[in-house]
Amino acid sequence: MSPPISAASLKHTHRLIPSRYPPTGILDLITSPQDFEAVAELEGWTNDRISAELGVLSILPAPEWVLGRANATAIMAAYCHPHETGGRFTSSDRGAWYAALSIETAIKETVFHRTKEIAESGILETTVQMRQYLADFETEFHDVRASPEFDACYDPNSYVAGQQLGATLLERGSNGLWYRSVRNPGGECIVCFRPALVNNVRTGAHFEYKWESHPEPQVTQISAG
What we know:
The chain is α+β, with helices and mostly antiparallel strands. It has a domain of 156 residues. The chain has five helices and seven strands, in the order E-H-H-H-E-H-E-H-E-E-E-E. Strands 1, 2, 3, 4, 5, 6 and 7 form a seven-stranded mixed β-sheet that branches. Helix 5 links the parallel strand 3 and strand 4. The longest helix has 19 residues.
């Protein structure tokens, strides 16, 4: 069964990523895939640097690349640098642009995942700075917010059902999904499968997450953006 489709006219969605990744990059500078190698050489980009910031560009076919506009590098990195275990609706083979409809939900979601990663190291004593990206959407998403038959996608401990649904919908040409936040009850999120649909991306505020021997970090906004 396929989820219903809802029109999504969304302004100021929120994505948070570690600020160690630069806000601009090589894909902001070029307008076609054919120019990539020349610009990379001119700018002194190495394969290691490209992989670190963008991931593996070959994950996406060249016609899907977003190029020559503000924050194109940040958009592409979301797709070409998937997490090794995937996300709620995406596998480790291809990433996507995950975002929340409120900054509170974005913080809750990212705090959960960062805390899990840090706890696995056995040391809950660290600080991470996060950069906010705002983006707009004028598209249609498959909507699983109010469909009980897709409740398995909200398992707090497993992505299996969500990844299976996401893979099926991606293969059928879906733009992505609109879903309930698992880490912030009452909040909502989207995952966009298509880079070209992530519009008007701009940087926002910076936040600091500080863990002091406790799984709940202190969250501080350190710049307004």
